[in-house]
Amino acid sequence: MAQGSWYDADIDHVIISEEQIREKIAELAKQVAADYAPVADGLLLVCVLKGAVMFMADFARALGRHGPPAELEFMALSSYGQGSTSSGVVRIRKDLDRDIAGRHVVVVEDIVDSGLTLSWLLRYLESRAAASVEVVALFRKPDAIKVSVPVKYVGFDIPSEFVVGYGLDFGERYREVPYVGVLKPEVYARS
Ligand code: XMP
Ligand code: MG
């Protein structure tokens, strides 16, 4: 591990390394580029803030090497009520800046857990008359299979543990960690 980052002492173990993330994103981008090669007016990538911000940045650049042109859009949603489990009650905190009617949309998601947030978002995007909507999610947890939400492109299936890094946070911290890992129990005890 790189010497001396503030967060190293807080991470119990790494689940997915920086290198694995980089390789997987290159693969996902190639698949998406191949599937959307015929799309003349380009793709609309919709990033769900804040967790997917790192993935959006790296995925968009990887896609740029092989794929059709892409436009980058950002949305912010609140899906959690009080606790740490998805309620399925979604509030839009930042909406799309443009009309997506007739456009081919790819939702760029960090992690699909229960799938409730995503299934709400897919219905919303379809209601705005997108020509097509697909999802690329870097991580998926086993609970995701309980809700039938069609995620066409998945990076990694990971265990049902709370993870941080690469955009994912605990209390707004650890988003800048370049890999994905599990926090030490004492970090939770501290907060
Ligand atoms: P659902 O359950 O609706 O929720 O699929 C997906 C959203 O929940 C967040 N999430 C996590 N955030 N570590 C995080 O930092 C995790 O392990 C985790 N699991 C789910 C995330 O915002 C995701 O978009
Ligand atoms: Mg998210």
Automatic annotation (TrEMBL):
Enzyme Commission number: 2.4.2.8
Annotated catalysed reactions: GMP + diphosphate = guanine + 5-phospho-alpha-D-ribose 1-diphosphate; IMP + diphosphate = hypoxanthine + 5-phospho-alpha-D-ribose 1-diphosphate
MF-aspect GO terms: guanine phosphoribosyltransferase activity; hypoxanthine phosphoribosyltransferase activity; magnesium ion binding; nucleotide binding
This protein's record includes keyword Magnesium: yes
Pathway assigned to this chain's UniProt record: Purine metabolism; IMP biosynthesis via salvage pathway; IMP from hypoxanthine: step 1/1; Purine metabolism; GMP biosynthesis via salvage pathway; GMP from guanine: step 1/1
Keywords: Cytoplasm, Glycosyltransferase, Magnesium, Metal-binding, Nucleotide-binding, Purine salvage, Transferase
Domain (Phosphoribosyltransferase): residue spans on this chain: 20-170
Localization of this protein: Cytoplasm
Cofactor(s) listed: Mg(2+)
GO biological process: GMP salvage; guanine salvage; hypoxanthine metabolic process; IMP salvage; purine ribonucleoside salvage
Gene3D superfamilies referenced in this protein's UniProt entry, alphabetically: 3.40.50.2020
SUPFAM superfamilies noted in UniProt: PRTase-like
InterPro entries for the chain: HGPRT (IPR050408), Hxn_phspho_trans (IPR005904), PRTase-like (IPR029057), PRTase_dom (IPR000836)
Any single GO CC term annotated in Swiss-Prot or TrEMBL for this entry: cytosol
Family designation: Belongs to the purine/pyrimidine phosphoribosyltransferase family.
This protein's name: Hypoxanthine phosphoribosyltransferase
Taxonomic source organism: Plantactinospora soyae
